[in-house]
Design brief:
three-stranded antiparallel beta sheet, five-stranded mixed beta sheet, 135 residues, mainly beta
Length: 135
């Protein structure tokens, strides 16, 4: 069985996902933009994988936007996005919280009608392997 390990930024919450992911979506909806503070959310989905907390389950907080299915789980200490089980047993795992590589390439971009105006327009922007010295 496939195993994926992950944690939050501060290390308080640690988990393992047992099983495979069904899909990997880059979501451009305005809710995911606000959740991540970025251009899109990057989430792995599974109907069959199971989530086991190794540490810090008591540090995990969840929020569901009233009147919607939009939900997110995060570490109450550092704010890092963490996995959560949504309606009908759907496991949603933010790709960035995994410590081990996963084999999926993004399945699709979704909610592109809400895409940030600057998203995808950055091909000519300078790139640095680390933090620029002039910051």
């Amino acid at each position: 069985m496939t195993e994926h390990a992950g944690s939050c930024l501060c290390g308080a919450a640690k988990f393992v996902v047992h099983g495979d992911f069904d899909s990997f979506y880059l979501c451009h909806c305005q809710r995911c933009q606000k959740d991540t503070g970025s251009a899109h959310g990057a989430n792995l989905f599974s109907q069959s994988a199971t989530l086991t907390w190794l540490a810090g389950a008591d540090q995990v907080t969840s929020f569901t936007l009233p009147g919607t299915r939009h939900s997110r789980s995060f570490c109450s200490r550092c704010g890092s996005a963490l996995p959560g089980v949504q309606s009908a047993g759907l496991l949603v795992v933010p790709a960035g919280c995994l410590d081990t590589p996963h084999p999926l390439w993004p399945t699709a971009h979704i909610f592109t009608s809400s895409k940030a105006a600057w998203d995808g327009q950055c091909d000519d922007v300078p790139a640095f392997e680390g933090l620029p010295t002039h910051v």
